[in-house]
Structure formats: structure tokens, C-alpha cells
Design a protein that fits this description.
Elements (H helix, E strand, L loop, with lengths): L17 H4 L7 E7 L5 E4 L10 E4 L9 E5 L5 E5 L5 E4 L10 E4 L9 E7 L2 E6 L5 E4 L10 E4 L9 E7 L21 E2 L7 E5 L2 E6 L1 E2 L2 E5 L4 E5 L8 H6 L7 E10 L2 E8 L7 E8 L8 E9 L11 E4 L5 E7 L3 E7 L6 E9 L5 E9 L2 E8 L11 E7 L20 E4 L5 E10 L3 E8 L5 E8 L1 E2 L5 E2 L1
Length: 471
């Protein structure tokens, strides 16, 4: 009937060709990079977040500017993304000369941002830039704090030897169990079905669901079909909710998002009020959903009336290498995206815009499948029973940051979006969707046969031969 899994499999390097596999010298993850010559760490100077900021060495201080997210590219090289700025290590201006400067820049995947990582043994490596063919080098063998790092013809000296110490893990590649041109399968649900803005997860034989409601209300099922109520995670609320959103009632939480990552359960959720951009996204985590040992991780991102976007409707996304991102937002200027620090599970780096629509847009969900990122959104108006106009729309992109185009090639930043689900005479205004892996979609719709009560719907998510989603 359906498939699910609560763990990922396969190393990111396993996605590459056999020839590229041989060059995978290091696991994906978060690393510090220290000079063998001085023991100091490679960092973006002064924690500068700007394009073109210089990269130098500095004694260890524990700051994220000294940490690098290292993941493979499709051609067997690696990108190195700074965990403070979210920008990539590159050779400035495509310089091919000895002494060419190493800086950071917004990642765009060019050869100047790709690095060959070569294992020398004893946890030592040398890094060679794909564009220049030259090695990462502590220029002039300087031992000074802030000494510059550049490139030089490889010679194997200690100024070109780097210790790479793993300080944080990332998941393996997202799991894709989806079916092409499969039969439509809308699950015959029973039990506790009153639901709004559901998120779904699977853990050791049990399905879990959380939804909008007091204290983050939940449900569970042993088969994904018959649902039982579960106690709210924070039955008494949290004090900081009203600190960030003073008009909040202290209990009502919107549109939670459940994901497992690095062996832990994470739950993002929204604190807001209708018609306001004074909002916050919070985070809770647990060793497992079944253990119920949830702990408050505090605020993730917040907005005020001075922002032109809204911090609601979070969705944790894994890119094709297993690195985490957060997509969120609604109405106003639309849907946003930020990188997630895989150690803190909170955002960093640039804010990207993915979709905008004057007639209403919210509830984003992004998944990766077979070379494309798919953005699903709810468009129209929710929360009005049978008068709701919600529909589920989608587009896709080869880059998680967009642009997302619909089946007609219209950018979702320009009100594009192909319709997956417009509802019917019984189930009105479907939306608030979440997708597990690439093959299970959960959402709510208003039951026209029960006074417009919002209820849970679950279906197998199928795909056509052109790579577009369908029931």
C-alpha cells in the first residue's frame, strides 16, 4: 500500500560515477581545516558574510566561521561552504597564478569553487582547485594570526598540508522509493481524523502525525490508516512564544514539521496570529518521537512588521547530498529558503526567495527526486471551511535555490505553479501538505458532508514519465 523509512542510506559519494567514487577521499560533513605548519584554522576573516571576503588562518575559537560544510559535486570534486556565511571557498577571479587569492562567494558551482581532496594519510590532506590546478597554500609559511591563504603549485610542503577534523555529520542522500506511472492510491482512513496542516513521519513501525492545535497536538498509527490521538508536546505552552508574538494566546501552534536527521527527531513549528507578520518559528527535538523526551530548542527565525515576509510554515529539506535547508514563508513576499547548520539545526547564510503569488501562497514543502527539487505550495485561502479556496500547486528546479518552474515553464516567483489537487465536491480546499520521502503526501481538506470540518487525507504520491507528480 505504501512505503516509509526513518533512516537514510547510501553515502553521497555513492551517487557519483565509478571513476568519481575513487576520488571520494573524505565523508560529507562539517569540518575544521587546520594548517600542519601552524596548527591554526582556515576561516573567513572577521566572520565577514560578504561576497569576496578574504580567507585566512586564525587560532581556534569555536566560531562557525572556522567550520566548513564539505560535500561532493557531481564530477568528483568537493564544495566547501562556510558555516557562518553560507558562501563557498573559491579562487578569486579565476586566477591561475601562484599566489592567487582564496576568498568566499555565493555558491554557483563553477570550477573555481570546486576542490579535489587528496588523502595523505594520518588525517592530512591537500586540496587542489579544479580551475587552476593549484593547491590550497598558507602563503609565505606565515605563522601570524590572520595570515593569508592562497594557491600555489603543489609541492607537498607543510604549508599545503591540512588536517581536516570532522565536527558535525550530515545525513546521507534523500531516499526515493517513488513509482513512475503507478495507480492512484488514496488511503481509506479511520479513527481520529480532524486535522489541519499535518506533518507526517515514520519511526520503527509507527506512523506519527502532528498538526495545528494547542501545544502541538499529535496522532499515531500502526498502519498509516487507523489514527489515534496523542498528547500535545508542550501542553502548557512555552514562555518565549508570547515574548516573540505578544498577541499569541500562548497555546495555539501552527503547521509543525517533523523530520528525522542524524538519528534525532526534530519538530519545527509556527507561532503566529492571523493577518500578522509578527511571527516566529520554533524548534523542539527528541531522541525519538516514541520516547517523547522533547526538549525546547528555542526560536529558529522570527519576523516583525518591518519584514516583508512571514516566519511561518517551516519545512526541513534535505538536498541531494543530505545537507539540511529550511523552507518557510507565506503571502507577503512569499516563500523563502535558508541553509540549516547541521550541528545546531538552525538557519545561517543568505535568504533566498522561491515563490510569490498575490492571491495567497503558503505551506511550502520541498523534496529532491531524480535530479530535480520539487516545491509544493498551498495557494488561495485556507481556514474558511467549505468557502476555502486552497489548492496544492508545484514547480521544479535543478537547484534547491530555484528558479522553480511549472509544467508550462512559468516561474513560481511570477505566480507560476501547476495544480496537483484542487479538491472536489466532498473534499474542499486541500492544502497544508507534507511529503514523506517522495511517495507519501498528507494534507487536510474540508469535509463538505460534515459542515466543513478539516480532516486528514493521505495518498500515495505518484510520478509521470516526464518526472511530474500526480496521484
Amino acid at each position: 500500500m505504501h512505503s516509509a523509512r526513518n533512516t537514510m542510506f547510501g553515502f553521497a559519494c555513492g551517487l557519483l560515477s565509478f571513476a568519481s567514487w575513487q576520488s571520494c577521499a573524505i565523508d560529507s560533513g562539517v569540518y575544521t581545516i587546520s594548517s600542519k605548519h601552524t596548527g591554526q584554522l582556515v576561516e573567513v576573516g572577521g566572520a565577514n558574510a560578504s561576497d569576496g571576503a578574504n580567507i585566512n588562518q586564525w587560532p581556534s575559537n569555536g566560531h562557525d566561521t572556522q567550520k566548513w560544510l564539505v560535500t561532493p559535486t557531481d564530477d568528483g570534486y568537493y564544495s566547501l561552504i562556510n558555516l557562518s556565511s553560507g558562501k563557498a571557498m573559491e579562487i578569486y577571479n579565476f586566477d591561475t597564478e601562484n599566489g592567487g587569492n582564496v576568498t568566499q562567494w555565493e555558491y554557483w558551482g563553477g570550477d573555481a569553487q570546486k576542490w579535489e581532496v587528496n588523502d595523505l594519510g594520518n588525517n592530512e590532506y591537500y586540496l587542489v582547485n579544479k580551475n587552476s590546478g593549484k593547491a590550497l597554500d598558507l602563503l609565505g609559511f606565515s605563522t601570524d594570526n590572520g595570515a593569508n591563504i592562497g594557491q600555489w603549485q603543489y609541492s607537498g610542503n607543510n604549508a599545503q598540508r591540512w588536517t581536516m577534523t570532522k565536527v558535525g555529520s550530515i545525513e546521507n542522500a534523500p531516499w526515493d522509493p517513488s513509482t513512475t506511472n503507478g495507480a492512484a492510491n488514496h488511503w481509506a482512513l479511520s479513527g481520529n481524523l480532524v486535522t489541519h496542516d499535518p506533518t507526517i513521519g515514520y519511526e520503527n513501525g509507527t506512523w506519527w502525525l502532528f498538526q495545528t492545535g494547542p501545544g502541538i497536538y499529535g496522532k499515531w498509527s500502526s498502519d498509516g490508516v487507523n489514527w489515534n490521538g496523542a498528547a500535545p508536546i508542550f501542553p502548557n505552552g512555552l514562555n518565549w512564544w508570547q515574548q516573540y508574538v505578544p498577541e499569541h494566546d500562548g497555546m495555539d501552534i501552527w503547521a509543525p514539521e517533523l523530520k528525522h536527521y542524524n538519528g534525532r527527531a526534530y519538530l519545527y513549528y509556527s507561532v503566529s496570529t492571523f493577518g500578522s507578520r509578527v511571527s516566529a518559528i520554533g524548534l523542539a527535538s527528541a531522541s525519538s518521537v516514541s520516547a517523547g523526551d522533547w526538549q525546547d530548542e528555542g526560536v529558529v527565525v522570527n519576523t516583525t512588521n518591518s519584514n516583508n515576509y512571514n516566519a511561518i510554515d517551516p519545512d526541513l529539506v534535505l538536498d541531494k547530498n543530505g545537507a539540511p535547508w529550511l523552507v518557510f514563508g507565506s503571502w507577503n513576499s512569499g516563500i523563502k529558503l535558508k541553509r540549516i547548520n547541521p550541528i545546531t539545526m538552525k538557519p545561517y547564510g543568505s535568504l533566498y526567495s522561491l515563490a510569490s503569488r498575490s492571491g495567497g501562497i503558503e505551506a511550502p514543502t520541498v523534496i529532491y527526486r531524480q535530479g530535480y527539487y520539487y516545491l509544493f505550495v498551498s495557494i488561495g485561502k485556507c481556514c474558511a471551511g467549505v468557502d476555502s479556496t486552497y489548492q496544492i500547486a508545484y514547480g521544479r528546479s535543478t537547484d534547491i535555490r530555484g528558479p522553480y518552474l511549472d509544467k508550462n515553464g512559468v516561474d513560481m516567483m511570477s505566480s507560476g505553479g501547476s495544480i496537483l489537487d484542487a479538491g472536489n465536491n466532498v473534499w474542499v480546499g486541500p492544502g497544508g501538505q507534507d511529503i514523506l520521502n517522495t511517495d507519501v503526501i498528507v494534507r487536510h481538506a474540508y469535509d463538505a458532508n460534515d459542515n466543513g470540518t478539516p480532516k486528514l487525507l493521505i495518498s500515495t504520491l505518484n510520478w509521470d514519465s516526464s518526472g511530474w507528480p500526480r496521484y
